[in-house]
Specification:
Blueprint lengths: L17 H8 L14 H11 L6 H17 L1 H4 L6 H20 L1
């Protein structure tokens, strides 16, 4: 049951970055407008518009940047517990490939 049309941010736990976005932009991502199955940027755009904010490409880039800071600060807690399996599998595969490369040296 994958997400056919998704972005990396769709795999993040919103609790990781909601506070930073609220503090820096005054946007409440706990709003029902942000919940749903659409792509993250579409949900952000709808939430921004709903709260009277500009929802252009520059603002979406700013929200992505604000989102990145708390994720970088605590990456282990950043992935959504119900959506992290594919990312964890990718990490495991990459670690295995790196180990093979190192063993070959």
């Amino acid at each position: 049951m994958g997400m056919a049309d998704s972005e990396f941010e769709d795999y993040l736990d919103p609790a990781t970055y909601e506070g930073a976005v609220a503090q820096e932009l005054g946007v409440d991502l706990t709003s029902p407008r942000f919940r749903g199955n659409q792509k993250w940027s579409n949900r952000v755009r709808a939430t921004l518009q709903d709260q009277g904010k500009v929802a252009d490409a520059a603002m979406l880039a700013r929200v992505k940047s604000i989102t990145a800071a708390p994720v970088a600060h605590n990456p282990k807690a950043a992935l959504h517990p119900n959506k992290r399996n594919s990312i964890d599998a990718l990490v495991t595969t990459l670690e295995g490939m790196l180990k093979l490369q190192l063993d070959a040296l």
